[in-house]
Amino acid sequence: MGYYANTFLYKQIVFATIRNNKNNYVMKDSVSSQIFQDIQTAWNTLNPQHIIKHLDKCFIYNSQWVFESLDYERYISYLTGKFNKIRETGCIVEATIVDGAVRLNQNGSIAFYRVKIENGKIIQSPGT
C-alpha cells in the first residue's frame, strides 16, 4: 500500500468550521478548541487516538499525496501507519496551536493540518 510512503508532513492548515442550521460556517470555540488541543496532543505524542475519537463515521480524507480518497476506516489505518513511521524514523513533531490553527514542525519543515467540522465531529480533512 502506498499510503505510508510519504512520511513528510502535508502543507495543510487547520480550520475548524461548524455548520449551523442555516448552512453557514461559524466557529464554536468550545468544540473547535478541544479538537485543536487533541490534534496538537496527537501529533506531539504520535498517538492517533486523539484525532480518531473526533472523526465522523462519514469522514473523508483527500490529499495530493495520497492516491485516492480515504474513508473513515482507511484513514485510521493511514494515520496510524504514518505516526508509526514517524516514530520509527526518530523524527520529532512539535505541534502548536497558532491563531486558530495547528502548526506542525517536523525537523524544521513547517506544515499545517486542515479539518472541517460538522456537528462536533471532523467530517473531512482536505489535502492541498
Descriptive overview:
- With 128 residues, the protein is α+β, with helices and mostly antiparallel strands.
- Helix content is 30%, strand content 30%.
- The chain contains three helices and nine strands.
- It has helices at 29-45, 49-52, 72-89, and strands at 18-19, 25-26, 55-62, 70-71, 93-98, 101-106, 109-112, 116-118, 121-126.
- The strands form three sheets. Strands 4-3-9-8 form a four-stranded mixed sheet, covered by helices on one side. Strands 5-6-7 form a three-stranded antiparallel sheet, with helices on one face.
- Strand 3 and strand 4 (70-71) form a beta hairpin.
- The longest helix has 18 residues, at 72-89.
- It is globular and about 35 Å long.
Essential attributes:
128 residues, alpha+beta, 4-stranded mixed sheet, 3-stranded antiparallel sheet, 3 helices, globular, disordered N terminus
Could you write a compact summary of the structure shown?
The protein has 128 residues and is of the alpha+beta class. The protein is built from three helices and nine strands, in the order E-E-H-H-E-E-H-E-E-E-E-E. The strands form three sheets. The protein has a four-stranded mixed beta sheet, covered by helices on one side. The protein has a three-stranded antiparallel beta sheet with strand order 5-6-7, with helices on one face.
